[in-house]
């Protein structure tokens, strides 16, 4: 019997996950360029979104606003719901036949908010969101990921060593749980050179979609 998570998986919905500095945004740009070159109908997106909910979250992450961790967890869930089901959202794009690639989704909330306000609230808020068809997790040592961020003039509130170590552990625990419930999650070594990571990511996406993008 299929698990609840597997029953609600969204085909052709691909999510990139990883701690800060793992390279998801860089690889997203490679994926978008490849899809465009091959003429594949697609949408690339990210969470938090550019909607008002997402903009509020970004102000909190940048330290411009103070908010209780539970409030942040609720904001992420609200932003995600609209992102999925709102006009021009993920579900609408998938129903129109597009491949959708998103930088961060449910696993991020379970890892990040789960590390700040405990697992119960994020799990409750995200329990009914559908699973992606494919998740690619970018595994990197927190010390190395923060080295990549060292050139930034200002770090976000989660971009601190103790926090990244907690989130890294939380990701591993959450991924194991989701895999046991039927989520398709592939792990890539994000410590490798960017081009090697890109090729591995492309291979995973090609195997999942059946499209050649490399």
UniProtKB/TrEMBL annotation:
Give the HAMAP family listed for this entry: Thymidylate_kinase
Matching entries from InterPro entries are given as:
P-loop_NTPase, Thymidylate_kin-like_dom, Thymidylate_kin_CS, Thymidylate_kinase
Q: Which UniProt keywords apply?
A: ATP-binding, Kinase, Nucleotide biosynthesis, Nucleotide-binding, Transferase
**Entry's Gene Ontology molecular function annotations:** ATP binding; dTMP kinase activity
Q: Which residues form the Thymidylate kinase-like domain?
A: 16-201
- Would you tell me the protein name for this molecule? dTMP kinase
GO annotation, cellular component aspect? cytoplasm
Which family does the record assign?
Belongs to the thymidylate kinase family.
User: What's its top-level EC category?
Assistant: transferase
Q: Name one GO biological process term.
A: dUDP biosynthetic process
EC number(s) on record?
A: 2.7.4.9
Q: Which reaction does it catalyse?
A: dTMP + ATP = dTDP + ADP
